[in-house]
Each structure stands twice: as C-alpha cells, then as structure tokens.
Design a protein that fits this description.
Helix content: 40-55%
Order of helices and strands: EHEHHEHEEEEHEHEHEHEEHHH
CATH topology of the largest domain: Isopropylmalate Dehydrogenase
Structural class: alpha/beta
CATH architecture of the largest domain: 3-Layer(aba) Sandwich
Number of helices: 11
CATH class of the largest domain: Alpha Beta
Number of strands: 12
Bound molecules: adenosine-5'-triphosphate
Number of domains: 2
Distance between the termini: 24 Å
Oligomer: single chain
Radius of gyration: 20 Å
Largest sheet: 10 strands, mixed
Shape: globular
Length: 338
C-alpha cells in the first residue's frame, strides 16, 4: 500500500541532496507518495513565514517527514525551524548513528566503530526559555529545563533501542558534577532505569571525559544517551570520526510524527555547486524506510550506498573524490537497478 510522506527540500544544499535521495528511492520502487511542503529561509522569503501552517498540517496527517537542512539565522531573526518542528510534534528522541562505512578512510577505518547517539530532543538548554535583561541586553539568561518525565522517556527509549537492535551497552553522558540539579536528575533516572535492563551494560561518563574518549577510543561505545546540547555537539564529533558530516543521518522519533534528516546543516559554502554528498540524507531515508516497516528496501538502499563507497569511483569531494552529487547519484541508481 502506498504511504504518503511529507517532503521538505530545505535551504542551501537541501534541494540538491533531497533530489538525489528521491531519485534513489524511486529507483528502489518504494511505495511512497511525496507531499511536498515548504519550511526554512526560502519559505520565509517567498511566503512570509518560515513554517507555514500547511506544512504542520501535512506532517500531522502523514506522520512521517523527510527533510533537507533548514537555515537558522544566527543571533537574531526567527528561531530554529528544526527545533520548532521537533517541539510541535513532540519528537523527543533524536537518533544519530555513526559507523565506519566501506571505502571511507579515517583513523578508525579498521576499528569497527559503530555507535548510536540518542539525544533528548525537547528540553535541556534548547527548551527555548531565555530572555535578555535590559537595559541594552546588559545580560541574558537561558534556562536548562530537565523534567523527570522527559529523562525517563529518553533513557527508556535508549535502552529499548539497544534491546531491539541487539546492542550491548548504554553510556549516559552528563555534567552532573557541576549541574547538580538538572544533570543530577538525568543521571539518577538513568541509573534507576538501567536496573530494569540487566542484560544491557550501563555506564555514565562526564561530558568532557566523553569528548576525549570519543577521540581516542570511540569503538568502545555502543548506544550513547545524552542531553539536547551535548547530543548536538557529540554527534557532530562522531560524524567527524567516520569521515564527515556528509555521511551521518538522523531520525527524530516522536509520539505524533517522526522526521528524518541529515545531521549536517545547509553547507552554504558549497550550496548550488552540485558538490554536496547526499549520503547522510540517503541513510536517513534508510532509517525512515525501517521506521515505516519497509526493512528490505532499507537494507537494499544501505547496501547500494556501501557498494558505491566501496567502489570508490563516484565519491564526492568531502570524501576525497571528484564526483558531483549527480554522478554519485547516477552510480547509486545503477547499483540499485543491478
Ligand atoms: P548551518 O548554519 O546550516 O548549520 P554550517 O556551514 O554552519 O551550516 P554545515 O552545513 O553542517 O554547517 O557544514 C559544515 C561543513 O561541512 C561545511 O564546510 C560544509 O561544506 C560541510 N558539509 C556539510 N554537509 C555536507 C555534505 N552533505 N556534503 C559535503 N560537505 C558537507
């Protein structure tokens, strides 16, 4: 049965990598009908709003959205539309896998590095509770919100994810030595829930130590559960370990809808030049297919990506190759079509 999915092309390199991903899914003959909607700076310039009602209505109807990156003005201007969509649909778990892919040379190529960051996606430092103090912005405050309920939900999600995907260990990353109330609560909840999952190993690490451990021996991590801010930063770090942002996908799993996207941003430096690597969004589409129950198609898509990277003839500049987005996509479609 054909399922409808909301599609947001986004800003910067968004339209290029979304087009490439749609072509790959067409080659796979997935039973998906796209409902294209707008968001981001492009939507703001043309429609006067960065997040039209119609977009929210489409996501609410279809419950699944594939999204290119959206530009957020730095400092002033409208708030992050990525954050707004996640909050609106209570997309509480941001799942970001990083694993070594065939043919991609990094310091960890032979290490078996294969970790998944589960980031709390609704509160923490990104809850949006902040204000400037007059006169003339003499100071500013941002509140870190940490509810027991949200901590329980994300930690439980991480353990359930580990259980259903056959993973062995959950590492909870925090700063409870300094942020004694908020992160103290997160850690307390983590320790308590871990006792319900005796078959899965549990450890906790302070974020600064974690940053170092991830650079030295990242293969020792399996599932990592952490706060909104730390998850944002550590997942970019993890992307760097496996060869860059062009490879790392992300899923935002929610109670009302789920959104699939690349971890990277709009890459304005290469936008419109046909140089973007669409792998991250394609792998996000693989996570989407899994989420929609199309596991065989997801397996085929990931297998085809691995094959093109292994062959190494049509890889993009970020991975040391010379291929354009178009050439990479054509090679992928050829592998898919067999
Ligand atoms: P934004 O403000 O939207 O987050 P940014 O430039 O700060 O944009 P990214 O878009 O994540 O952050 O890009 C960081 C760097 O990684 C840039 O040099 C960009 O060109 C590169 N990059 C990101 N995504 C890709 C991709 N898919 N293919 C190739 N290079 C990429």
């Amino acid at each position: 049965m054909t399922q409808k999915v909301s599609l947001i092309r986004g800003d910067g390199i968004g339209p290029e990598i979304v087009e490439a991903t749609v072509r790959a899914l067409e080659a796979l003959e997935v039973e998906i009908e796209w409902e294209e909607v707008r968001a981001g700076t492009g939507a703001f310039q043309e429609l006067g709003t960065p997040l039209p009602e119609e977009t929210l209505a489409s996501i609410a109807r279809n419950k699944v959205v594939l999204k290119g990156p959206l530009e957020t003005p730095v400092g002033t201007g409208f708030r992050s539309i990525n954050v707004a969509i996640r909050k609106h649909f209570d997309m509480y778990a941001n799942v970001r896998p990083s694993k070594i892919l065939p043919g991609v040379k990094t310091r960890f190529s032979d290490s078996g590095l294969d970790l998944v960051i589960v980031r709390e996606n609704t509160e923490g430092a990104y809850a949006g509770i902040e204000h400037a103090i007059p006169p003339n912005r003499a100071a500013a405050e941002t509140i870190i919100l940490c509810t027991r309920w949200a901590c329980e939900r994300i930690v439980r999600y991480a353990f359930e994810y580990a259980k259903t995907t056959g993973r062995q260990k959950v590492t909870l990353v925090h700063k409870a030595n300094i942020l004694k109330e908020t992160h103290g609560l997160f850690l307390e909840v983590g320790r308590s829930i871990s006792r319900e999952y005796e078959e899965i190993e549990f450890e906790d690490l302070i974020v600064d130590n974690m940053a170092m451990q991830m650079v030295i021996r990242p293969e020792r991590f399996d599932v990592i559960v952490t706060t909104n801010l730390f998850g944002d930063i550590l997942s970019d770090l993890a992307a760097g370990l496996i060869g860059g942002l062009g490879l790392t996908p992300g899923a935002n799993i929610g109670s009302e809808a789920s959104m699939f996207e690349a971890v990277h941003g709009t890459a304005p430096d290469i936008a419109g030049k046909g140089l973007a690597n669409p792998t991250a969004l394609m792998r996000a589409a693989g996570m989407m297919l899994d989420h929609m129950g199309m596991t065989e198609k997801a397996r085929q898509l990931n297998g085809a990506i691995d094959e093109v990277l292994r062959q190494g003839e049509a890889v993009t500049g970020d991975l040391g190759g010379k291929a354009t987005t178009e050439e990479y996509t054509a090679a992928l479609v050829e592998v898919i079509k067999g």
